[in-house]
Predict the structure.
Amino acid sequence: MNAIEMIDVDKSYGPVAVLQGIDLHIVPDNLVAFSAPSGAGKATIIPFFAISRPSARNSDEIRVAVPMA
């Protein structure tokens, strides 16, 4: 099971597509760092993990696993 899974995620601001076809699979208990040149979309992709902000994403599919107590 993936802790976070993004499948074919897109994000646009009006007519400008800033992320296209992003796939990301993060397994539980892993540390992940985003490293890329300025303007590559690092700050744009982070709000996708905040499921409480649906307006931050235009996606096909995003799943976040919540541990059951």
About this structure: Residues 3 and 33 are 15 Å apart (CA to CA). Confidence is low (pLDDT under 50) at residues 52-57. The beta strands are 4-13, 16-26, 61-64.
